[in-house]
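Write out the 3D structure for:
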Amino acid sequence: MNTYITEMIKRKDLLFYLVKSGLKAENRNSYLGYFWWLLDPLLNVVVYYLLVHFILGRGGENFAVFLVIGLVAWRWISTTVNTSSKAITKYASIINQVYMPKSIFPLAFTFTQLFNFGFGIIVIALFLIFYGIMPGWQIVFLPLIIIVQLIFLIAVGFILAYVTVFVRDMDHLLSHVTRVLFYSSPIIWEGGRLPAEYSWVVDVNPVAIIITSYRDILMYHSLPNITGLVFTGIISLIVAVLALIFYSKNEHKIIKAL
């Protein structure tokens, strides 16, 4: 395990290169380029605001801010899940020629989407200013929430990248899994709207805990779900470490499968 981590540290230049190339590849053939990082979450908010608020007649005061926080946080989750799952198979030609820790690839995709999330934070800030919402001192918990979400996504990315090497149908399955996760989390609806017997869906859902925590500190001037965040962070960290141990002992299987 120590040797494996040492090898990952030695390959940090590769990690930086993968993140940088990933950022360039996302907007390679786009006229607007990096502006899409700001425009994409904005357009998502417009679509769901029209659907939920005007057509369905749901959503209360400052619903647009409610939406933008949920959609920006969800975008980091969904894009990381989809890209990390294909991280190893995408670079199969390189992996078969040169030895390198395979866990670097899903790790790079996760950090790439973290960079994109930074632009989403700018969009959230613009909405807060437009609606006259000034976060309180609770905003000091923002780094904690981001770190917990990052660790959670790293753990998920490690698992999905490895499984996809052997189960190529995972890519098709994930599109349905993420759709279920989207509608089972309070991204475009409020958690309190669920019947009492289904409230556990929000209580144990790490996505719901993370997104609700963002709203607590940015919109409602209240403390985030610290217990839920710490629990999610610890479990995710344990899973990530176990995944690295698994990678260090089973990387030869990846090469054979590719």
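The radius of gyration is 19 Å.
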